[in-house]
Design brief:
Layout: E1 2-3, E2 6-21, E3 24-31, E4 40-43, E5 47-54, E6 63-65, E7 86-92, E8 98-103, H1 110-115, E9 119-125, E10 142-150, H2 164-169, E11 175-178, E12 181-182, E13 185-190, E14 192-199, E15 206-210, E16 216-221, E17 224-232, E18 235-237, E19 242-248, E20 255-261, E21 283-286, E22 289-304, E23 326-334, E24 346-348, E25 360-362, E26 366-374, E27 380-384, E28 390-394, E29 409-412, E30 417-424, E31 429-438, H3 441-445, E32 449-454
Parallel strand pairs: 2-5, 4-9, 10-14, 13-22, 23-26, 25-32
Antiparallel strand pairs: 1-2, 2-3, 5-7, 6-8, 8-9, 10-11, 11-12, 14-19, 15-18, 15-20, 16-17, 16-19, 20-22, 21-22, 23-24, 26-30, 27-29, 27-31, 28-30, 31-32
The chain binds CU-O-CU linkage and copper (II) ion (2 copies).
C-alpha cells in the first residue's frame, strides 16, 4: 500500500497448515498465508518500508536476498524478531530489474524455517515501473517459479530430520514443490513465455532443461539482465541462484520443464532418465539419481503474438580487476571430525560462524577481489550480502557467457577456485555486519558463514 512517497509492506510470519497432498495437512510457516509469501512487486528507486510481525513461537528474521540495503535492515541473525514483535526495515530499492527473494535468516534456524515455508519472491521492475521489452504480464507470460524439494511422510507431513547425513548433504527430499505445488501445469496464452527460476531449495543443485531438449534464451542472472540473451538448453542453479529464461511455445506443443538433481559431492550429474516411473510426487529415481518435473507448459490453440526478444538487453560496466584495491581469500572447508563448532565443522578460513566476531573489514567506496576456494569434497554455493558481484574467473579461466552478468551467489564445485569482483558503496556501518556464507542452509546453520562490515 502507498503512503506518501513510501510504499509499505505488511508481512506477518505465521504458522499454518498446508495440504500438499489431498486432505493431508502438515504444519507449515508462511508470510501472510500458510506456506511461502506473496510476490512483492517493487520499482527501482522506490522507498519501501517493510513491517515484519512475528507471530511464531520462535525467533525469526526476514532477509532481502540480493538487495543492496543498509546492514541494519538486511534481516540477518542480528535483526532477530522475537515472538510477538514487529521489526521495521526502510530502504530505497537500488536494484536492476530482476527476481530476488526474501527468506528467514534466523540464527542456526534458517534451514528448518525456510523448509517449512518462510520465503517468497520479489520482482524488481525498472525505474518508474517501466516494463522491459521481455514478456512482463505477471502470471500470464511472466511467471516466477520457486523450486524446492521436500521430504514427506506417508501421512503427508513434512519431514525435516536433521540427521548427521542431512546436515552434511543438506536437507533433501524426493518431491518437488513449485510455488508450493506438486507437478503444476501452466496454460500458455502467448508465443513467448518468460520464466523466472529461483532455486529455493535447502540443498539440491539442479540442471533445468526441457524433456524435448528444446533450447531457450537466458536473459537474466541473479541481479539483472545479461547484456545479451544467451541460447542454452540447460541451466544449472544452486540454492539461492536465479535465472530468467524466455521460452518459445509458438509451435503449440506441450513442453515439460525438468530439473535434474546433481550429486552433492562433486557437482557432477546424478540425474539419469533411464527407467523408473514417476514417484508419488513428481520425481523419478534411477541408479544415477533424481529427475523432477517442474512445470508442464500447455500452449493454447490461439497464441497471442509476443515481441521478439531484443538482441541487446542492457549494458553492464566492464569487468575491470585493475580497480581492485585489495584481494581477500576465503577457503570453504568441511572438516573430517564433522563437529558442529570450530575445527572439524563447516568453516570458512578455518572458522565457524560467530555472531560476536567480525571477520572482515571493508572500506566504503572500494572495489575488491574475493578469491574463494572450495577445499572440500562437496559443491557449495557461496553467497555475499549487500552486493551484486561479477565473476572474474573460474580456475583461472573466464566464466561462461551466462555467468558474466550480475551475481550474488556462485556455485563452487569441489576443489574449484573462483575470483569475484565486488564494489562496496553507499552504506557504511562499522558495528553491523553483513554475511557471506554457503547457501546450503544446513551448512549455513552449521557455521559455514562469516561476517563483514563496511566502514
Ligand atoms: Cu539468501 Cu544470507 O541469504
Ligand atoms: Cu542474501
Ligand atoms: Cu555448503
Amino acid at each position: 500500500q502507498k503512503n506518501g512517497a513510501i510504499t509499505e509492506y505488511d508481512l506477518t510470519l505465521q504458522s499454518g497448515r498446508t495440504a500438499f497432498f489431498d486432505n493431508q495437512f502438515t504444519p507449515t510457516i508462511g508470510i501472510n498465508q500458510s506456506y511461502l509469501g506473496p510476490t512483492l512487486d517493487m520499482v527501482n528507486g522506490a522507498d519501501v518500508r517493510m513491517s515484519v510481525t512475528n507471530t511464531l513461537e520462535e525467533d525469526a528474521t526476514l532477509h532481502w536476498h540480493g538487495f543492496h540495503v543498509p546492514a541494519r535492515y538486511d534481516g540477518t541473525p542480528h535483526q532477530r524478531i522475537a515472538p510477538g514483535e514487529t521489526w521495521t526495515a526502510q530502504f530505497q530499492v537500488r536494484q536492476k530489474p530482476s527476481l530476488f527473494w526474501y527468506h528467514s535468516h534466523a540464527h542456526r534456524r534458517a534451514g528448518p524455517q525456510v523448509y517449512h515455508g518462510l520465503a517468497g519472491p520479489i520482482i524488481v521492475r525498472d525505474d518508474e515501473g517501466r516494463t522491459d521489452s521481455l514478456p512482463h504480464e505477471y502470471g500470464i507470460d511472466d511467471v516466477p517459479l520457486i523450486v524446492q524439494d521436500r521430504a514427506f511422510g506417508s501421512d503427508g507431513r513434512l519431514i525435516y530430520a536433521r540427521s548427521m547425513h542431512d546436515i552434511m548433504m543438506g536437507m533433501r527430499g524426493d518431491t518437488l514443490l513449485v510455488n508450493g505445488v506438486i507437478d503444476p501445469a501452466f496454460e500458455c496464452q502467448t508465443e513467448l513465455l518468460r520464466l523466472r527460476l529461483l532455486n529455493g531449495s535447502n540443498a539440491r543443485i539442479y540442471d533445468f532443461e526441457f524433456e524435448t531438449q528444446q533450447s531457450f534464451l537466458m536473459t537474466g542472472s541473479d541481479g539483472g539482465h545479461l547484456e545479451a540473451p544467451v541460447r542454452m538448453s540447460r541451466i544449472r542453479l544452486s540454492p539461492g541462484e536465479r535465472a530468467e529464461i524466455v521460452v518459445d511455445a509458438s509451435h503449440g506443443v506441450p513442453l515439460q520443464l525438468l530439473a535434474r538433481s546433481l550429486s552433492g559431492e562433486m557437482g557432477m550429474m546424478d540425474g539419469g532418465m533411464m527407467g523408473g516411473r514417476w514417484g508419488r510426487g513428481n520425481s523419478r529415481r534411477s541408479s544415477e539419481g533424481s529427475v523432477f518435473k517442474v512445470l508442464l507448459i500447455v500452449p493454447n490453440e490461439q497464441l497471442r503474438p509476443s515481441t521478439a526478444t531484443p538482441a541487446k538487453l542492457t549494458t553492464l560496466p566492464a569487468i575491470d580487476p585493475s580497480k581492485a584495491v585489495k584481494t581477500r581469500r576465503f577457503v570453504l572447508e568441511m572438516g573430517m571430525g564433522m563437529g558442529m563448532r570450530g575445527r572439524g565443522g563447516f568453516t570458512i578460513n578455518g572458522k565457524s560462524m560467530d555472531m560476536a566476531r567480525i571477520d572482515e573489514r571493508v572500506k566504503l567506496d572500494t572495489t575488491e577481489i574475493w578469491e574463494v576456494e572450495n577445499a572440500s569434497m562437496m559443491a557449495h554455493p557461496f553467497h555475499v550480502h549487500d552486493v551484486q558481484f561479477r565473476i572474474l574467473d573460474r580456475n583461472g579461466r573466464p566464466p561462461p557467457e551466462h555467468e558474466m552478468g550480475l551475481k550474488d551467489t556462485v556455485l563452487l564445485s569441489s576443489r574449484e577456485r573462483v575470483r569475484l569482483l565486488l564494489s562496496f558503496k553507499d552504506y557504511a556501518d562499522s558495528d553491523t555486519p553483513y554475511m557471506y556464507h554457503c547457501h546450503i542452509l544446513e551448512h549455513e546453520d552449521a557455521g559455514m558463514m562469516g561476517q563483514f562490515v563496511i566502514e
